[in-house]
Amino acid sequence: MREPRSAETDRQMAARPDVFTGSIRQLPTGLVNQIAAGEVIERPAAVAKELVENALDAGARRIEVAIEGGGVARTLVRDDGAGIAASELPLAVQRHCTSKLPEGDLVRIATLGFRGEALPSIGAAARLTLISRPHGADSAHRITVEGGAVGPVVPSAGTAGTLALVEDLFFATPARRKFLKSARSEAEAAEAAVRRLAFAAPGVAFRVTVEGRVAIERPAEARAARTGALLGGDGAALLPVEGERGELRLAGFAAPPSVTRASAAGISLVVNGRPVADPMLRTALRIAYRGVIEAGRYPVAALWLDLPPEGLDVNVHPAKSELRFRDPDAVRGLIIGAVQRALGAGAGMAAPRVGWAPAMRPGLALRAPAPVSPGMAEAALPFAAAPAARNFVAEAPPPEHPLGAPVAQVLDTYVVSVTADGALVLVDQHAAHERLTQEALAAQLVTGGARAQPLLVPAVVDLPEGAARRVGEAAAALARLGLELEPFGAGAVLVRALPALLGAADPAPLVRDIADELEASGETTALEARLDAVIARMACHGSIRSGRRLSLAEMAALLRQMEATPRAATCSHGRPTFLRLSREEIEKLFGRR
Predict the structure, then answer these.
(1) What is the pLDDT of residues 33-52, one digit of tens each?
(2) Which of 176, 273, 342, 395 is 20 to 30 A from 113 via CA?
(3) Pairing of strands 301-306, 267-271
(4) Are the beta carbons of 448 and 500 closer than 8 angstroms?
(5) Is 402 domain-assigned?
(6) Strands 62-68 vs 205-210: parallel, antiparallel or unpaired
(7) What is the CA radius of gyration of the chain?
(8) How does DSSP classify residue 538?
(9) Number of folded domains in the chain?
């Protein structure tokens, strides 16, 4: 039995006129449609997205989009798809009427749309005109919807396919317009929505105009061409990505670590033909790039993932931009593995050799520097005499050496080389050697463990008690990396051996850095991920330092090892190891082009 309300409750309810205390009733159809329209069509970009998705689901091979007044005044989408029969046009603008669930199966969804809400929602919020003509039909027919009011079907002129025209968006719900951004911002959002769909469907020709300006115009093409065109300058050095795991298929392109963005705008993910912004997929991609790009930067990649429809739930997000996978671990592992393999053979270097280990290659042939002309002696200081540079002159390198032949060391930190095609390369010797050391340690770990070099006298390293505990608990894992240590009281560890690859590294700062890394990675982080981070810390301590002078043979060996090492374009912290200026870029800098 319901207890009676108190007088105080009645007073509180009376003071809140927004609280409805009447009986439950069913909302009018018009209001229901306006609510649905607000959920599906929250801004002009949603109109463009829904209409283009309909065109793709109809099998269109060419789609034209025109956006005016930020999409509020006018959005037009024309396609050459299957078209809609005159008898079905009234159904097309009714809610929950669709041709995209032929068996009524919400598990095996193979289309972009399937709920039958887009056209009725648009018609409830704007003035909608549909003109459609199925292939083989004698003529086209037209239907209009204004603020939810459906007009009759009438004959019309029209080519095969469908034309959808949306005008005066939100005229029926003017309050919604107050929350829109400027016309320019809304137009940019609509263009971005269409661009994502064009990315996902490279086999379809697209022409998009915004305020009369051609924003996108691409023919039907291969994925590589579409990706390069829509990524702009970032598409120039893309690396192919391929992978399979069971019924999962992954393909696409990833930029080398030297190409990054300040945001995730350069990431395009397509699942079963649907562009998505799924957080799990983005996280997997960032993990694949972990350790090769700088913290706070984002990779550039375009990936297409295909899997059976029953392995995917696309209806967990209102905009269907996030997904639920039946086997998320398999998807994650496929993306991380495939992208890391692509990065390992990238950056313009040769593919890594199986069982790679550091190896010195013969140096390049030298010739003596040309003598300075006596007449020039007072006018210019010879480069070889400059205190911060060491000059060497090498024969032209063969084309298979993309990093070229060393010609100088500048500031005792940077190696200058020239390639066969006349490009100038500047290498950060510490950053480059750091990557070489990291990859060598990782390779040794995989093949049975890194070789340890015992210390003549074991070193005691003092640490905070918690740090000493963490390092002691990781002793067995660290031993696989060649670092042999053991607890030495409550606040110290005893180091007995260091990885041979690190040379004569100082144990104390190395162990303290490793303790910091173990703390940062957390107790629950997988051992493999923690070891990756520890290897990166070790590599920094065992690398050639800035300020160390190198011989020509050492510089040449460094370049050759970089060419044979995966991920050599960036150091363990994600910073670039070398910069390259082509001959054309140099000539532009001097105004020769």
Answers:
(1) 655 555 568 889 999 999 99
(2) 176
(3) parallel
(4) no
(5) no
(6) parallel
(7) 32
(8) H
(9) 3
Residue 140 CB coordination number (10 Å): 22
Residues 240 and 213 reside in one and the same domain: no
Q: Quick one: average pLDDT of 538-563?
A: 77
Q: Is 168 helix (H, G, I), strand (E, B) or coil?
A: coil
Distance between CA atoms of residues 333 and 341, nearest Å = 12
Q: Are 531 and 445 in contact (CB under 8 A)?
A: yes
Residue-wise pLDDT for 148-190, tens only, equals 899 999 999 999 999 999 999 988 778 778 888 889 889 999 9
Check whether residue 330 and residue 442 sit in a common domain.
no
Residue-wise pLDDT for 82-105, tens only, equals: 999 999 999 888 876 766 555 545
Task: Say if residue 203 is in the same domain as residue 87.
Answer: yes
Query: Which of 218, 238, 271 delimits the end of a domain?
Result: 218
Tokens of 114: 């399937």
Would the pLDDT of 587 be above 90?
no
Compute the distance between CA of residue 557 and CA of residue 316 in angstroms, rounded to an integer: 54
Reading the block at residue 383, the tokens are 């480069």
Token pair for residue 106? Answer: 């919400």
Tens digit of pLDDT for each residue in 16-34? Answer: 555 455 577 765 666 566 5
Distance CA 285, CA 34 (A): 39
Instruction: Mark whether 200 and 271 lie in a shared domain.
Output: no
In this structure, are 181 and 260 located in the same domain? no
Amino acid at 41: I
**Which residue shows structure tokens 């099998």?**
59
CATH code of 438's domain = 3.30.1370.100
Is 177 among the domain residues? yes
Pick from 486, 490, 489: nearest CA to 478: 486
105 and 198 part of one domain? yes
Residue of 344, 361, 405 whose CA lies nearest to 566: 344
pLDDT above 60 for 541: yes
Q: Are 76 and 63 in contact (CB under 8 A)?
A: no
The answer to whether residues 369 and 384 touch, using CB atoms and an 8 Å cutoff, is yes
| Tokens at 453, concatenated | 């070099």
Q: What is the extent of the structural domain holding 298?
A: 223-344
Q: What is the DSSP letter of 204?
A: S
Q: What's the burial of 543, exposed, middle or buried (CB within 10 Å: 0-12/13-18/19+)?
A: buried
CB count within 10 Å of CB 54 equals 23
* pTM metric for this prediction: 0.60
Question: Three-state DSSP class for 381?
Answer: coil
Whether 415 is covered by a domain: the verdict is: no
CA nearest 493: which of 507, 506, 504?
507
- Compute the distance between CA of residue 517 and CA of residue 515 in angstroms, rounded to an integer: 5
**Is the same domain home to 205 and 271?**
no
